[in-house]
Design goal:
The chain is of the alpha/beta class. It contains 6 helices and 10 strands, in the order βββαββαβαααβαβββ. The chain has a 6-stranded mixed beta sheet, with helices on both faces. A hairpin with a 2-residue loop joins strand 1 and strand 2. Helix 3 packs across helix 4, helix 3 runs parallel beside helix 5 and helix 4 packs across helix 5. It is globular, with a radius of gyration of 18 Å. The termini are far apart.
């Protein structure tokens, strides 16, 4: 038998950011939130971004995800420059290749759990009922497909939001304080669920959290401090 070989090739990079800068005007004061942040995120990696309140975690997440244009710097996702192709290109990438989970669940109150989970595929023009049903089953809501958000607990609503993020089979999921509205036990369960699903499906995950304990659950923890990343 031929000797076994070890693959020493580096993991593929799914997201690259270089020298991101972003500031806000507060009265006459200019507040520098991102002061030249560079980061590489590898395919299949679970990265947790943490830092003090107001440190810029969400600003960085939104900039990496194509939701907030930096004043300078560049973001490249799967070989595509996010901020050079126009809004139509950005919107298509966000819909088809990126999933989002937010602190606020942002479910439409008049739609059922299944209909909420279907929304990204409906926007893309390809209704994926089977994918939505599977995603809701994977998050433990197989028996709640026809329930309205008002009939679901906070944890269940966040599970619907996770299913919605998965329905278009994105490469990467960004989660902004996904446990912020939940008690500690429910929040820990949501993080475990997210980690399990992305690993099972081979997805990349980037999570913003203020909880340093939760931040230890991923493959890598990054802290934003004074507008810069520290490992």
């Amino acid at each position: 038998m031929p000797p076994s070989t070890i693959d020493h090739s580096p993991p593929s990079t799914i997201l690259t950011a270089r020298d991101l800068r972003r500031s806000f005007q507060l009265g006459k004061r200019k507040i520098d939130v991102l002061r030249g942040i560079s980061v590489d995120i590898q395919r299949g990696e679970a990265v947790f971004l943490c830092g003090a309140s107001g440190a810029g975690k969400t600003t960085l997440l939104y900039t990496l995800a194509g939701l907030e244009t930096p004043e300078s710097g560049a973001v490249e996702f799967e070989g595509i420059a996010l901020y050079k192709g126009g809004e139509a290109v950005q919107a298509r990438i966000r819909n088809e290749r990126i999933g989002f989970v937010f602190q606020g669940y942002f479910l439409l109150p008049e739609l059922t759990a299944l209909e909420n989970a279907l929304l990204p595929s409906m926007i893309a023009g390809r209704v994926k009922r089977e994918a939505a049903e599977r995603a809701l089953t994977d998050v433990g809501l197989a028996d709640r497909l026809q329930h309205l958000p008002a009939e679901l607990s906070g944890g269940e609503q966040q599970r619907v939001a996770i299913a919605r993020a998965l329905v278009n089979d994105p490469s990467i999921i960004f989660a902004d304080e996904p446990t912020g509205n939940l008690d500690s036990k429910t929040g820990a369960g949501i993080i475990e669920l997210l980690l399990g699903l992305v690993r099972e499906r081979g997805k990349t995950l980037v999570v913003v959290t203020h909880d340093s304990q939760l931040a230890t659950r991923g493959d890598r923890r990054l802290e934003i401090r004074d507008g810069l990343l520290v490992a």
